[in-house]
Amino acid sequence: NQSINRMANHYRLLIRNASQLVVIQRSAARFKRCSEMNEVEIIENGSMIIGDDGNIVAVGTTDELKEIISDGIFFDELDATGKTIIPGLCDAHTHAVWSGDRVEEFAMKLAGATYMDIHKMGGGIGFTVRHTRESTEKELLELFLKRLELMGRNGTTLVETKSGYGLEFDTELKMLKVIHNATNKSKVDIVSTYLGAHSIPKDSTVKKATLDIVENQIPRLQKLKESGEISPEFIDVFCEKGVFEADDTRKILQAGKEAGFAINFHGDELHYTGAAELGAELDAVAISHLEWVSDKGISAMAEKDVIAVLLPTTAYILRIEPPPARKLIDNGVPVALGSDFNPNAHCLSMPFVMNLACVTMKMTLNEALNAATINAAASMNRSSTHGSLEVGKCGDFLVLNAPRWEHLVYQLVNPPIECVYKNGILID
């Protein structure tokens, strides 16, 4: 059932004889939910062909593809005997542009300090904001590209990342320019998010900060996006008690939506704020965290197809109750995973995130894989091109030196990633 142009017999790459070719799905579905999240499509003794444009031309068993293989001319070939091929991993939530580490805070957390305790002492976001404001665009770009390189080595080929360590227009713009400029320098695909409402600036108020974002920052960023200087697709708000609460969050997200940004925001992390209900009302693409999501919020998200981006690293680092993954999945909410890489949760490894999801949130291995591929891609509006090995999608995949894909999660700390391919080209 392959759609193949027999005249076009030159191809970029042939992968053959994989012990497992984990295609995830063959349905072209945008995401998976409920019991679908526990289903993974696997082809044994699988082969895959990547076209000259870097997209997948054919997938199937080696025997099913023998005719196109025999007729084809391939720039490169990969014998995957005894190995496993899986899609490139998708990291649905990161804060990867910043300077100034917060290693001192780790000891404070171990001693019992909460996130908000550290925040009130001038640490946390405020500490990173000061350092990020002082850093040049060039310095931030170098840091960001190095982090992307490390993410790629850990199997991530698509990542969402945010501004948010500026809290005033010039630094937010600097961060968004860094993200924009990295897209042509990094081998990892990047989705950009504007997070001007990450915290309340020092010597300001919620009312003033909200007004500045709605009346000043969003209109100016909209014009810069239209001129091609930056490329944020999403707007984000840290919807939290004592920060931007529900009414302020609504104003900011609504203004962003009217300016053409899709909605993907922090909600119900440290306290219940009604974020899930608000996100469903505003047709958000995704909501992150959700440790304190309500039953009503879960129902609203399921009804409106809002994706839950769960971040087990956050609960692990802060030693708080993890988000209710089982309840979300069992009640029809599509669940995705993100590393939440930031100075507070310094994690660049999606395999480790998947392990945490299984151990701390009681997700199955199959659910974790779907959450880190097709559903994570969907949370970034990229599931038509990423997240599964289907014909027409990007030829992004990992080669695992293992006969089964589960070794990616099972082999904690040192997953058997032999190499990573982006658009059919070896990158690591």
TrEMBL record:
Its EC number is 3.5.2.7. GO terms for cellular component: cytoplasm. Its cofactor is Fe(3+). GO terms for molecular function: imidazolonepropionase activity; metal ion binding. Signal peptide: none annotated. It catalyses: 4-imidazolone-5-propanoate + H2O = N-formimidoyl-L-glutamate. The keyword Iron applies. The keyword Hydrolase applies. Residues 84-424 form the Amidohydrolase-related domain. It is an enzyme of class 3 (hydrolase). InterPro entries: Amidohydro-rel, HutI, Metal-dep_hydrolase_composite, Metal_Hydrolase. It comes from the Eukaryota. One of its GO terms (biological process) is L-histidine catabolic process to glutamate and formamide. Pathway: Amino-acid degradation; L-histidine degradation into L-glutamate; N-formimidoyl-L-glutamate from L-histidine: step 3/3. Keywords: Histidine metabolism, Hydrolase, Iron, Metal-binding, Zinc. NCBIfam families: hutI. Belongs to the metallo-dependent hydrolases superfamily. HutI family. This is Probable imidazolonepropionase. It comes from Hirondellea gigas.
